[in-house]
Amino acid sequence: MKTAILSASLAIPLPLFAQDADDAIEARHGYMKMLSIEMGKLSGMAKGEIEYDEAAAQAAANNLAALSNYDLPSLFVEGSSSDDNGDSDALPAIWQNTEDFGAKFAGFREAAAAAPAAVTGGQGNIGAALQTLGGACKDCHDDYRKPD
């Protein structure tokens, strides 16, 4: 019986497992929202709007580093560009330049990995870490995100 069930499940066409473009867009929006929350905490501390708390700064930076390890490029499925769906800000250039897009995400991953150590030692250190993180975000958004 187990063999029959396993055989039947393997016979299901792979397109049934393919990610839906709407789901991918929703997941990307959620991912970007989480990044925004953590960046906002660091930005607030850097500006003095939030009292500097080294543990909280490190927690935000650790969350960014953890998020950067998610395979975000896998959420950019065919049919989920701004040309295909009005809910998407992803420019079609992503699918035309997948290697560059992946390299830019790797740059964000590198910046995020350095952030937990960079935000320690006082409020004054957060600005430089944010510049590095923000620069990595901007590198990708300049080429691959629809302007606001």
Automatic annotation (TrEMBL):
Gene3D superfamilies associated with the record: Cytochrome c/b562
Keyword Transmembrane: no
Coiled coil regions, renumbered to chain: none
Any one Gene Ontology cellular component term annotated for this protein: periplasmic space
PTM annotation, UniProt: Binds 1 heme group per subunit.
Record-level Gene Ontology MF annotations: electron transfer activity; heme binding; iron ion binding
Position of the signal peptide: 1-18
Keywords, alphabetical: Electron transport, Heme, Iron, Metal-binding, Signal, Transport
GO annotation terms (biological process): electron transport chain
Residues involved in heme c binding: 137, 140-141
Keyword match Coiled coil: no
InterPro entries: Cyt_c/b562, Cyt_c_II, Cyt_c_prime, Cyt_c_prime_subgr
Protein name (record): Cytochrome c
Species for this entry: Paracoccus caeni
